[in-house]
């Protein structure tokens, strides 16, 4: 059978590094026993980040605001068991193909592959059991020096959720951010700048139409900093759209800058992917989170760097197909600072 080996590497800097390589194995190789599920913390200075190997998920990120008050800026749960029953993808690594595949099928080299639908007739974030719903191995964990780090790995077998050799690969990191603190309310007053002149419009099921359209003159235009809530009412439910990032598709480039005036926190994101899904937590509805706080719509925002959604069904989109022996590499760099 074919095995897809996936690595997730992070520094408290915070630098995320996702790699996938296709390897060929003899048919019938037995699966390895799953490791226990645990919580792992990285600390450096006044900053700390916690993970669980369930879904290689970020479960907290604590750092000071402009007044020196510490706060957790990621939405999530108190218990790892809650992540196992999660339907919001809080903090997880989603894949093998993040975002949506229309009709839960695609054709490659003349063969149609039928996948497992989990959002109506479509596949979302890898299907009913994507990478955010599996136990990852912890292959490296250092928290006793100036460069704390952790590495997760997961072996994805041939045919998992319908995927085969010459498989599409599109991983995304699905943390919900609220720079004011996870329990501070909505993110509509936060300002965002997105380095993208174009976006990929979608139909009523959030499947791309195949067009690549300029953001200018639309509510999707964040080429200049705007509060997230400034034009959100012009959209049916809020932002849940892929931006075609400016710059070379495979090189590190600026993706977005988010600022929260009240806390003074600033988050800058860079990545080497061609797109980013900007999602404003539109479908969050009375979710009981950390400390019993109830998350509602727009309680957090996601910036999921990625290949374009449904690329397998749109030849004009950047390809996500990875051949055996080839690498997929996805780098994300999050930088945090404070403005007075």
UniProtKB/TrEMBL annotation:
Signal peptide positions (record): 1-28
GO molecular function, one term: aldose 1-epimerase activity
Keywords (A to Z) from UniProt: Carbohydrate metabolism, Isomerase, Signal
List of catalytic residues: 174, 304
Binding site for beta-D-galactose: 99-100, 174-176, 240
Biological pathway: Carbohydrate metabolism; hexose metabolism
Residues forming coiled coils: none
One BP annotation, GO: glucose metabolic process
Gene3D superfamilies in UniProt: 2.70.98.10
EC number annotated for this UniProt entry: 5.1.3.3
Catalysed reactions listed for this entry: alpha-D-glucose = beta-D-glucose
Domain of life: Eukaryota
InterPro entries xrefs: Aldose_1-epimerase, Aldose_1/G6P_1-epimerase, Gal_mutarotase_sf_dom, Galactose_mutarotase-like, GH-type_carb-bd
Family named by the database record: Belongs to the aldose epimerase family.
Protein name: Aldose 1-epimerase
């Amino acid at each position: 059978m074919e095995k897809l080996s996936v690595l997730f590497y992070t520094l408290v800097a915070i630098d995320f590094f996702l790699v996938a390589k296709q390897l060929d194995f003899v048919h019938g190789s037995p699966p390895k026993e799953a490791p226990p599920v645990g919580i792992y913390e990285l600390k450096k200075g006044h900053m700390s980040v916690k993970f669980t190997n369930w879904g290689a998920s970020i479960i907290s990120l604590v750092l000071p605001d402009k007044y020196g008050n510490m706060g957790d800026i990621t939405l999530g749960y108190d218990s790892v068991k809650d992540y196992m029953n999660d339907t919001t993808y809080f903090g997880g690594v989603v894949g093998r193909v993040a975002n949506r595949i229309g009709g839960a099928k695609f054709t490659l080299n003349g063969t149609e592959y039928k996948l497992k639908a989990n959002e109506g007739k479509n596949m979302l974030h890898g299907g009913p059991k994507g990478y955010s719903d599996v136990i990852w191995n912890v292959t490296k964990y250092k928290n006793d020096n100036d460069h704390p780090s952790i590495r997760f790995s997961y072996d994805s077998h041939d045919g998992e959720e319908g995927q085969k050799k010459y498989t599409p690969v599109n991983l995304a990191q699905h943390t919900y951010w609220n720079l004011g603190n996870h329990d501070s309310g909505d993110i509509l007053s936060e300002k965002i700048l997105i380095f993208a002149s174009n976006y990929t419009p979608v139909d009523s099921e959030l499947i791309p139409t195949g067009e690549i359209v300029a953001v200018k003159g639309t509510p999707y235009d964040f080429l200049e900093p705007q509060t997230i809530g400034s034009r959100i009412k012009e959209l049916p439910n809020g932002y849940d759209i892929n931006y075609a990032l400016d710059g070379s598709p495979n090189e590190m480039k600026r993706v977005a800058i988010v600022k929260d005036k009240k806390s003074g926190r600033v988050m800058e994101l860079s990545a080497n992917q061609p797109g980013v899904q900007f999602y404003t937590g539109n479908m969050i509805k009375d979710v009981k989170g950390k400390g019993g706080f109830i998350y509602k719509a727009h309680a957090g925002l996601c910036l999921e760097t990625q290949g374009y959604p449904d690329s397998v069904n749109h030849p004009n989109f950047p390809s996500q197909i990875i051949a055996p022996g080839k690498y997929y590499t996805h780098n994300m760099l999050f930088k945090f600072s404070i403005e007075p």
